From TrEMBL:
SUPFAM superfamilies: alpha/beta-Hydrolases, Galactose-binding domain-like. This is Acyl esterase. Residues 329-564 form the Xaa-Pro dipeptidyl-peptidase C-terminal domain. Keywords: Hydrolase. It holds the Pfam family PepX_C. The keyword Cell inner membrane does not apply. InterPro entries: AB_hydrolase_fold, CocE/Ser_esterase, Galactose-bd-like_sf, Xaa-Pro-like_dom, Xaa-Pro_dipept_C, Xaa-Pro_dipeptidyl-ppase/CocE.
Amino acid sequence: MPDPTVLDAGGQKIAVRKDLRVPMRDGVELAADAYSRPSDEPRPALIAMSAYGKELQALALTLPPQRRPSPMWDGCIEAGDIARVVGEGYVHVIGDMRGTGYSGGEMIGNYNFGGVSQGQDLYDLIEWVAAQPWCDGNIGMIGISYFGSMQVLAAAERPPHLKAIFVSGGHFDFYETTYHGGIMWFMPRAAREGRGGDSGIAHTDVKSRMIERHSPEELAALVEQRLQDPDVVAWPNLVHVLKYPKNREMWFDIVMNEFDGEWYEERNPITLAENIDIPVHLQIDQGRGWTVDGHIELFETLKGPKKLDIGSYPPMRSRPWVEEHDRMFRWYEYWLKGIDNGIMDEPAVQVFVEGSREAVTAAQWPPREIEYRSLYLRPRHKISAEPELMGPEHAAPDGFFQAPLTVTDTVQILSWSTAPFDEATELIGTGAAHLFAEIDQPDTNFIMRLWDAAPDGSRQLITTGFLKASHRELDARTTEGNPYHPHTRAVPVEPGRVEEYVLRLYPFASTFLPGHRLVAELSNNEPLADAHNALLPPDAFHLPVGRPVTHKIYRDALHHSRLVLPFTTGRATAT
């Protein structure tokens, strides 16, 4: 192996071993770089693997961290602070998954679901690194988002030298990664195509699993069927992807698979997590509800030593990613260096509560005892702890008409509000929005967002809920305040019929301070710009409804449209 190149990074000498070739069991070679102190002393290694390209990750040495809404923010620089990793006494190994960057082989489908298991490749890479003279055989992993998902896939394979992982902001339920409540989310498009602040996947040999699986005739028929969806056919990018699938093969696969099932469940990290027996630390921030949901589900699946840290809003970290490193190095100091620093004496769960801005700790999620209570939507845009007494003949429904975004830039929003809270009121957990609604089309989107509105007019997003109307079926896991939808088929809505739609409100933790109000907003499209969306990359919105729809929301004595929310016990409620 050639001698490393030594560079100066902010006054620190770093030895760089570039373009290491790592053999996989099927003969394919993956490419990786290793960063370490110049001395020959073997050290623990932290491995970061993704499809985004190791050369992009190297910019962490020269690009100051950027925060949204900086135009320099690149969502794919996620492997961590190289200089600090080296300075803390680790070897930082950053590599390319097969079919991407400088690695060989091909990637078939999303996360290579049609080819060699990425967990298998990661097993081989980990064991190869452990055998190198610059590694002492103790391996952990590092990285946010895509890199976090790879950690779970690796740990599920149980490589002997992988001693612990620290996962930040990973993606776990792969259906929920792209379809929130059955509504397509565009953020994965950005990660794959390199749009809206993301460099995207470093494609070299990335292929569509749908193209591999179906004959040209079968595929053409499936594409034409998908183009019958008026939402899809109204969106230029999706028409382009479906007509020219070789252009964006991974995104094509996702667009073509609108229902949950085998396509997404195969190698689902949450399912595979039952195989994980090493220590796992999970970290996620509020404001990205579906990933909070996934981290909690993963935490509850794991059987070995584990921690869950739910951090504060806002939802998007710096790029290059540099946050959470203090906690991560304490974790690895304990598990990779054998230093008893007390981290395992601390509670397993830590949750930052917005509003009160306190950290609540416990052994489980949720960290406090809760009781679900209903807050009812009432006439005159009010929310109350008491249901409406008037019947539908007197309490006329609220309504809004939404024209497609092809003909308007205006997103219509219905809102309801509590009176100001008279005492601090804490809510922690998942929730539900029960909407009795009538629409005049076979389908629409329901997007519910809850806000904490302060007396000075400022506000902060608390949680969100999404549901495509044709995906309204509930499954057997559903309990009060904790609904689940199978998303395995579409059941068109009978226009003009009042139906109950139950939206899952993603997990959150917030204290409403005296004088603050809880505001619920309902729309069928993503608001184009507001206080929350300004913090997100430009492509972090959902597929708009491509047809004109009239919505009527009933909240009367016969139709108890309501929010079901997790109040911690022993606290006051809204007046």
